[in-house]
Design brief:
There is one protein chain. The protein folds into two domains: 98 residues, Immunoglobulin-like, CATH 2.60.40; 264 residues, Alpha-Beta Barrel (TIM Barrel), CATH 3.20.20. Helix 6 links the parallel strand 13 and strand 14. It is an alpha/beta fold and 372 residues long. The strands form four sheets. Strands 9-10-12-13-14-16-17-18 form an eight-stranded parallel sheet. A four-stranded antiparallel sheet has the order 1-2-6-5. The structure holds S-adenosylmethionine and iron/sulfur cluster (SF4). S-adenosylmethionine (SAM) binds next to strand 13 and strand 16. S-adenosylmethionine binds next to strand 13 and strand 16.
């Protein structure tokens, strides 16, 4: 419970409100490290409460106590479908209203992830601006990477091309980035190229990154000349090692030579496409990451994203042997940071993105429930 306080003690702002969330910060200067409880309403209707307790470096630097005063409240799904509303944010008990409240819901989404089981729910509604759209057009994959949490979510469902085109024309007024492939494998959809063309020929053609995210093993099944013309500009390939045995030990079913042929072939056929590599770092391939970077460099790779292997917590109180083995693949404390230092010292920081386990676990916990 927030103790009653004079209004003058509170300070707070709504920074942003789009169709998925309202965010900002709030604190009380007479209790600089305490967090305050906020109530979010649409007119008279209460949507929920949230605590302004998220750490923000800018708040710490601005002298707002310990800096743990940010908030982020996820809006109910209905706002995606009607893209309007005026939301107020007040301190619970004290009824202090934040500056910028009430905030108008903007027809904008920073990031939306869609998969075949949920796709049809989003096809009809008002047009929106997207920061990044990530769409799984198939809900399955041809590989069985040992660490992959989405194996458990696979199904035969696919997005229909007609429904996808309807979504593009109705719901997307602008997209900054568009990724085909997110939690499953887009190349398993036989009409992949038609989906890329549909994006490239619509208002949804992204102003920045137009990405295909894939394991690369089925690319030869698709028409590279048509991919070249679709406007795709980024090929994200997940590749943990360029040693076939090490690769096979983590990305079960991978064929290194085929992936490499597919990548070099597609890059040659589509000069407008730049390569980006995703590398999951485990105990098995930790010592082989530099070789992947050296190979990527020969292909003029624009970026390398290193993802520290994570393993979502399971409710199982007694871990199975399989789970114990997987946990054994995870890096020890400090190893990811050491690898980061080593890579930056050798190659410079420019082309690297590092996503540590904590970050990925939070990301997965956020989007996994939305995929089913
Ligand atoms: C789920 S995959 C889907 C796209 C495509 N099938 C692929 O592998 O690139 C997306 C990315 O997540 C990575 N990934 C999967 N499981 C992971 C885990 N447990 N920890 C870290 N990254 C993981 C994959 O290697 C890939 O780079
Ligand atoms: S290729 Fe991608 S989707 Fe398939 S199992 Fe591996 S990480 Fe998961």
């Amino acid at each position: 419970m927030t103790a009653q306080a004079p209004h003058a003690a509170f300070e707070g702002f709504v920074d942003d409100c789009d169709c998925t969330r309202i965010a900002g910060w709030c604190w009380r200067s007479d209790q600089p490290d305490a967090s305050v409880e906020l109530v979010i309403r649409d007119g008279e209707r209460e949507l929920g409460c949230t605590r302004a307790d998220k750490f923000r470096r800018d708040l710490l630097l601005a002298g707002k106590g310990n800096g743990k005063h940010g908030f982020h409240f996820d809006l109910p799904e209905e706002y995606l479908l009607r893209a309007e509303g005026r939301l107020s944010v007040r301190v619970a008990d004290a009824e202090f209203e934040l500056v910028g409240s009430p905030a108008t819901v903007r027809p904008l989404i920073q990031e939306l992830i869609l998969s075949p089981p949920v796709f049809s729910r989003y096809v009809d509604g008002p047009p929106l601006d997207f920061g990044t759209l990530r769409v799984d057009i198939a809900n399955t994959c041809n590989l069985f990477c040992v660490y992959c949490p989405t194996i458990a979510l696979r199904s035969k469902e696919r997005v229909e091309l007609a429904s996808f085109e309807r979504f593009l024309s109705q719901r997307v007024s602008h997209a900054q980035n568009f990724a085909v492939g997110c939690g499953q494998e887009p190349t398993t959809h036989p009409e992949l190229v038609s989906f890329l063309e549909a994006i490239g020929n619509s208002k949804a053609k992204p102003s920045e990154m137009f990405m295909l995210v894939t394991n690369g093993t089925l690319l030869h099944k698709h028409d590279w000349a048509r991919i070249a013309k679709s406007g795709l500009n980024a090929l994200y390939i997940s590749l943990d090692s360029v040693d076939p045995e090490v690769l096979g030990g983590v990305r079960t079913g991978s064929k290194l030579a085929l992936i490499q042929e597919n990548v070099t072939g597609l890059l040659a056929a589509a000069p407008g496409v730049r390569l980006h590599l995703n590398i999951v770092v485990t105990n098995r391939n930790r010592g082989y990451v530099e070789d992947v970077i050296a190979w990527g460099t020969t292909q003029h790779a624009a970026s390398f994203t290193l993802r520290e292997m994570y393993f979502p917590p399971t409710p199982n109180p007694k871990p199975t042997i399989e789970e114990q083995e997987l946990r054994g693949l995870m890096l020890e404390e400090g190893q990811f940071a050491a690898l980061r230092e080593r890579l930056i010292a050798k190659w410079g920081p420019e082309r690297f993105v590092f996503a540590d386990r904590l970050h990925l676990e939070q990301e997965y916990a956020y989007w996994a429930p939305k995929l089913v």
